[in-house]
Design goal:
The structure is a homodimer.
Chain A (H helix, E strand, L loop, with lengths): L2 E6 L7 H16 L3 E6 L5 H12 L5 H25 L4 E4 L6 E3 L8 E4 L2 H8 L3 E5 L2 E3 L5 E3 L4 H12 L4 E6 L20 E3 H9 L7 H9 L4 E5 L8 E4 L3 H4 L5 E17 L4 H11 L7 E3 L6 E8 L4 H10 L1 H4 L3 E14 L9 H11 L6 E5 L2 E7 L3 H11 L7
Chain lengths: 407, 407
């Protein structure tokens, strides 16, 4: 008998009808002989409704109170799902994050899980009861509600799967897995049967919304096999996220991605000496701005240029911080370039295959797409290009690495 | 410096605007130098909305799950009120029933408070923070949410006031106190400045909705002074519910009440011997039906009649149980009479004044109102009359005992 953690997102429990459908699916897994633990999010729209109320009261609501408020969203879902399960004939009981033994640090609204003691869930399983656990929430050491921030329910599910030594953590969502590219842009994008933790991590960081990077990291650390599948169709096979095996290493590139939320800031004519970059990025880090790619040009007459990219939404703010440091850095000016996009290829196979990056550059060159910046990691190559070529670049790379649906 | 517990019902926190008004009122009490603890209900309509969801899922939802679900209603209110208080500049923190230390028995949906350990609330008070506590809810010994049933938030407030040895428990509601009669029926009904616990208990049992009998009992047991006042008007003086004092004993009758939710069942020609009544009412009690008045007529030829009243809503069911016992009791028949009402006068003064009951009977007789049944307690006289005379009887008694507004 295996232990399965199933996680259902807000859309999957967005109406009474859908809650009934989830109950039926959970019960089938139970009847198939598995020990099932369910983790659910708030009903779609509920978290926003609660946030709306809080913001009607205050422009900057206290985060402890916000966590108390938002925790109710998942409590409603778990109670309704437990009622639906019992109605269907399946013994079930709901548990808050606290009751599920999820202990976090003290940081409200984006707490980190410190420890899980799922004693009550284990007792329930032993008695044949399906525990339905509130995702997204935990309890700090002063016994206050905390919430885990964006993607928190996935993290709850993966962490519980680790704590319960589950055989698999199934993440049910509104898509049927991880794709080789965004199917909205690349019509022949293919669902990936398997990806490695590292590939998924890169894809998540590149904007694959199906699973947040922090959940993947957690799954990797505790080696929890995660399956992402659709709750809207029957027999969705989904995508298995796990350690790489022999098969996987034969695939050079697993997926391609594009991110148009990019802006580039360039500081020109800085003195090329130690500590300059540290000063600049120290200032920016203190403002909690996230820098993605950094490129320093070759020095010329003791002067150099530094370019870096930030999310477009934070571009103006980053520019201001860069400008503040101009005199400190003895730089000439700071300029902002928008209208750019980042295309990336991801695959563990790159580690054992040479020439992957150049194949990417050639494919882009063949379409006359100019590359503005390049960055590489062990399993990823990203290029900054002009954003009007973003979709073309994505399709080109998808073809070049033969990722399309086989006929 | 005194400790005040203020309780606000669902209407008082029914909108963001009203929550702000409550915050202002709480802050004023704090600024006046009091240690204030606030207890709130769910926003008006929220509990019904949640119940509606549960009943969409199941006709008979599990009570443990229902308590998990309903507990969220008060959690939303306390979080929003705490945010509103902080926004107004008043330090505040919300606490669930659990966090407030309210421990109950295991009976979901109508739990009884077993113990209160308000350690966290006391810590908050010492640090100048206003604790905002979820009413209606507690935690049982297995650390599950429980709810206290109807009027539960009032009970939470009174119980917390007792545990915190508060100087007063203020119950804010949509009426400005307890009246000598229902002002909808008796236009010159007068707000009572004070009533005794016992009088309030009788008035609550007779249908005064302002405060439930269980809260009054609790207040009486722990001698918590309770003030019922309006949250909708400024400077509502309200009604103080406390132990009787010299002044109060001079008032013979504090209030009059009428209850039209009455039905009378009569069993005719039973053998007049021991054990017959026990058999009948034992059967009815096992069906959880509540019997109010019981009258056994004088015996005639070894045979007697027994009449009793039940809430009209339970009349058919009570009749069926009475009919079931007919042969056991060797009774002739069981009949049901509806169209009746109960008028009552209540006052601690009755204990030291004679002739109060006869004054009531005379007043009714003067209006040609026939009395069908009579029951008395130390501080109450009730008469069953035909319900078409209910309003007339109420006004008549209100006049007869000179309860009206003084000119």
């Amino acid at each position: 008998m295996s232990v399965i953690v199933q996680k259902y997102g807000g859309t999957s429990v967005g109406s009474i009808e859908r809650i009934r459908a989830v109950a039926a699916r959970v019960y089938r897994a139970k009847q198939a002989g598995h020990d099932v633990v369910v983790v659910v999010s708030a009903m779609a729209g509920e978290t926003d409704r609660l946030l709306g109320l809080a913001h009607e009261v205050s422009a900057l609501p206290d985060t402890r109170e916000l966590d108390m408020l938002l925790a109710t969203g998942e409590m409603v879902s778990i109670a309704l799902l437990a009622i639906a399960l019992k109605e269907a004939g399946c013994e079930a009981a709901s548990f808050t994050g606290t009751q599920g033994g999820i202990v976090t640090d003290e940081v409200h609204s984006r707490a980190r899980i410190k420890q899980i003691t799922p004693t009550r869930l284990q007792h329930a399983l032993h008695r044949g009861i399906v525990p339905v656990v509130a995702g997204f929430q935990g309890m700090n050491e002063t016994q206050d509600f905390t919430t885990l921030g964006r993607g928190g329910s996935d993290l709850s599910a993966v962490a519980l799967a680790a704590a319960l030594q589950a055989d698999v953590c199934e993440i049910y969502t509104d898509v049927d897995g991880v794709y080789s590219a965004d199917p909205n842009i690349v019509p022949d994008a293919r669902r990936l049967a398997r990806v490695s933790y590292d590939e998924m991590l890169e894809l998540a960081r590149l904007g694959a919304k199906v699973l947040q990077a922090r959940s993947v990291l957690f799954a990797k650390k505790y080696e929890v096999p995660v399956v992402v599948k659709s709750s809207l169709v029957e027999n969705s096979e989904g995508t298995l996220i796990t350690n790489p095996d022999q098969d996987m290493e034969q695939v050079v590139v697993a997926g391609v991605a594009v991110d148009k939320n990019q802006a580039k800031i360039t500081l020109t004519r800085l003195p090329d000496r130690p500590g300059i970059a540290a000063k600049l990025f120290g200032e920016i880090a203190r403002a909690n701005l996230v820098v993605d790619m950094i490129i320093q040009n070759a020095s010329e007459g003791g002067l150099t240029d530094i370019s870096f990219t930030v999310p477009r939404t934070e571009a103006e703010q980053a520019l201001q911080f860069a400008q503040k440091t101009l005199s400190d850095l003895e730089a000439e000016e700071a300029t902002l370039q928008t209208g750019i996009a980042k295309v990336s290829i991801v695959g563990v196979g790159m580690q054992s295959h040479s020439g992957v990056a150049s194949r990417m550059f050639e494919a882009l060159a063949a379409e006359n797409i100019n590359i503005l910046m390049i960055s590489t990691s062990e399993i990823k190559v990203s290029c900054i290009i002009q954003d009007r070529y973003a979709e073309l670049a994505l399709r080109t790379l998808h073809d070049a690495f033969e990722l399309g649906e086989r006929p």
